[in-house]
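Problem statement: downstream parser choked on a complex file, so we are re-checking the raw output for the NAP run. The parser issue turned out to be on our end (a line-ending mismatch), but while we're here, posting the original submission so the record is complete.
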Amino acid sequence: MNKNIVIIGGSTGIGKAIVERAALDTGNKISVFSRQEELMASNFKSLDNVSVHFLDLEKIDANEFKENISTLNNIDILINNAGYLVKKDFEKLSHQDIIKSYQINVIGIMQIVQATIPFMTNKGGHIVNISSMGGFQGSMKFPGLSAYSTSKAALCSFTELFAEEYKDSKIKMNCLCLGAVQTEMLETAFPGFKAPHTPQQMAKYIYDFASSQGDFLNGKIIPVSLSTP
Ligand SMILES: NC(=O)c1ccc[n+]([C@@H]2O[C@H](COP(=O)([O-])OP(=O)(O)OC[C@H]3O[C@@H](n4cnc5c(N)ncnc54)[C@H](OP(=O)(O)O)[C@@H]3O)[C@@H](O)[C@H]2O)c1
């Protein structure tokens, strides 16, 4: 593939599986970000084309982030996979719960996109935001997810607005609204629920989409789910 790829939130679950899938194409160069730098270093120590970096979406140092991605020169793909889920009855949500959900799931991602644009302007690139079916208009909703799912809906909306503003550039942005995937996040929120997909299956879908669809789609909100309709 020979792509320069940045993955935000690659330490666990789906993000870790995306890194492992992307690294199989040995021509790729992958920079992975999350708070758990040591865990990522240990997870990916055998992968020569992966570098790991600390990033906390609640306290972004844009200069440090830019310095870390500058080694990639042009960035072909940015996958914004990081996410935070708080499940609480609406009246029990604290102001901090809501702020944290929006900071990690939307505002932090917008800041990361701002910092990445200068590294995509020459050749162009594909930005893929990872949202949730919970944030997809008209989908089935679940109690306790008002902070999480509204923030994921905002991420969908950001995708449409960014695509409009940058439609004459070579940068494309799309948003995947995932259905249930068997990760720790899902197991904590819905104990005992059996998801139809493993992180590895979803990671392959996301990687293939990010690698191939930027030339065809822009500003699209795509449900990735077996649920009907
Ligand atoms: N699993 C599902 O059923 C499902 C369904 C729909 C959508 N999704 C979405 O898919 C994405 C991956 O979820 P997952 O299930 O794989 O959950 P996960 O294992 O909990 O992964 C979440 C990732 O986000 C990162 N992250 C969280 N807070 C962060 C922060 N402050 N700064 C930087 N990175 C942060 C985590 O890294 P650190 O903890 O190392 O910082 C981790 O790499 C999320 O956006 C989630 O909303 C999942």
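For whoever reads this later: The chain has a mean pLDDT of 97.
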